[in-house]
Amino acid sequence: MASHPPTAYSTVGTLRAFLSGKISHYFGWSGPSLTFDTACSSSAVAIHTACKALQTGECSQAIAGGATLLSSPYLYENLAAAHFLSPTGATKPFDVSADGYCRGEGIGVVVLKRLDDAIADGDFIRGVIVGSAVNQNSNCVPITVPHAASQAALYRKAAQQAAIDPKTVDFVEG
To answer: pLDDT for 66-89, tens place per residue?
Structure first.
């Protein structure tokens, strides 16, 4: 966009704030249409928010997910200058040799419904979200570093909402 003269479509076509609205407008959807930018947690926050909208009856079906498309080298350069990116190239979560992360592009979405509605409609059900929660780290570590106590509190909250014993969980995706 920076290398072209402004047009009537420049802003609407490039600002993140317009993304979800443009998709809803195209398909004629009328429920909440939100764009989140919470860094690495944007997709999870979108899915959490969609689940809450389904629970409250704000909508009967939701599409939630995320996209990362990097169209400029500047983000990489700035992240490298701040030592966010791994100099060894691979992200190594929960590993003592972790030295940053590796950026990538991708798009993923899920279609969500209340379980009773999905069953009644004969939908193929790939999974059930029984609880979700979001939070922000305590101000004890740098903003980019997970804080164990904050993450544990979030885990307990999600487990409580799901009415499950946290000790019975075999796998957690973070």
So the answer is: 988 887 888 889 988 988 888 888
